[in-house]
Amino acid sequence: MKKPAPSRRRFLAQSAAIASAALIPTHLRSSIAATPESANDRPGLGLVGAGRMGHNHMRFAKGMCDVVAVCDVDTNHREKAQQNLSDGKAKAYNDYRHILEMDSVDVVYIATPDHWHAKILIEAMLAGKDVYCEKPLTLTVDEGKVIRKVQKKTGRVVQVGTMQRSYLDLFVKAVAIAGEGRLGRITRATASIGGSSGSGPIPEHAVPQWLDWNQWLGPAPKSPFRWIQDPNLKDEWQIGKTNGHQQFRWWYDYSGGKMTDWGAHHVDIACWALRAAGQSDTLVSIGGEAKLPVPYKNGYPTLRDQYNTASSFSLKAMMSDGTELLITSEGRNGVLLEGTKGRIFVSRGDLTGAPVEQLKDLPLPEDAISKTYRGMPTPFNQHPNHWANFFHCTRERMEPISDVTSHLRAIDICHLANLSARFDRPIRWDAQNEQIIGDEAANALLSREYRNEFAIEM
């Protein structure tokens, strides 16, 4: 398929938006409403990946856009999303490239398994689309280099689905506390992200007629479909133990396990807090202990028929200024920030600690949350605000709260943590050149080979 050119409608709309924004004083831009003023302002959205995540998260965005196309390699997912999200009106495809060709698609929402993210994101930006992409953006460090380059070239707006950056009353408030110096100098941040378990051998299985397995694999290595059906599952999105669908997270060919699943959220918050406090989030080294469910040799699993991502771990990342960032499968899920003046714990359920209690007598400045949220509108909270932030930034041509650069700094720490686990040795990192120091075998896994038919179309 040929690479789509931006439509005349999109070009004129974006030119007008840029021209209008130039007439608005910078300090007033954040007061602009975060939802469209009329139906004509509603962007057309193309959903790529209509499984549980993509389908369910659209409920937060549906009121701010029109779903004009859906894509999924699973016929059941595709048909259900088409009906539920557009009353059957949206175009439905098996191949996402059709969506990139559509003039009526202004923004693309990527909710595929992780191994597809970078390719679709890069091609969507080159096709003139703004993109909301679920985390992590990458499967390897080198994919991030290409993403940064293409975004700079195209000027597209990209929001990462690390929606904790829009939890105003919890994570944003925690970062604001750190930014206001209430913790003093942060000496240690701990991201507790939980562990996982192995699966045991999963046999090969005939590919169901409703699944295009070759297209599901895409850039990943050719592999047989594996499946152990579980008749007790009541969730229609689950299909038991498999190397596809919801269980893709536990295979390094498709994801990074808990490290890039919950790590993408909590390591990001820890790094954001360090930056807000005027400290470094530049990695120097990472190492520690990790348990993997199968034996490894030279960084690769020796068994290919079962889950292989790290199941438990305690890995310490050292920043360039000496601050410690601990990534662990132990403890309560959340982020602990320990400083010279106090400590706070933040999760999706609460924000606690003496510095939080002290807010009753010494509240944060009125603009603390706004300043932490870069002065952008905050009409909602949590998931709805994250989507509203994205659409606001596509109109104003601004960098959203979960920007590419900050996300890649955090997720690269997670990728390097996984390499430390896979090789069972510490990793020393040259952040300036984005290379592992003195370890050729680990350095080789900073990138991956794509299958020829699924190479990125630049």
Automatic annotation (TrEMBL):
Keywords: Oxidoreductase, Signal. It comes from Novipirellula herctigrandis. InterPro entries: Gfo/Idh/MocA-like_OxRdtase_N, Gfo/Idh/MocA_oxidrdct_glycsds, Gfo/Idh/MocA_OxRdtase_bact_C, NAD(P)-bd_dom_sf, TAT_signal. This is Inositol 2-dehydrogenase. Its EC number is 1.1.1.18. Residues 1-21 form the signal peptide. It comes from the Bacteria. Residues 46-161 form the Gfo/Idh/MocA-like oxidoreductase N-terminal domain. One of its GO terms (molecular function) is inositol 2-dehydrogenase (NAD+) activity. Residues 199-455 form the Gfo/Idh/MocA-like oxidoreductase bacterial type C-terminal domain.
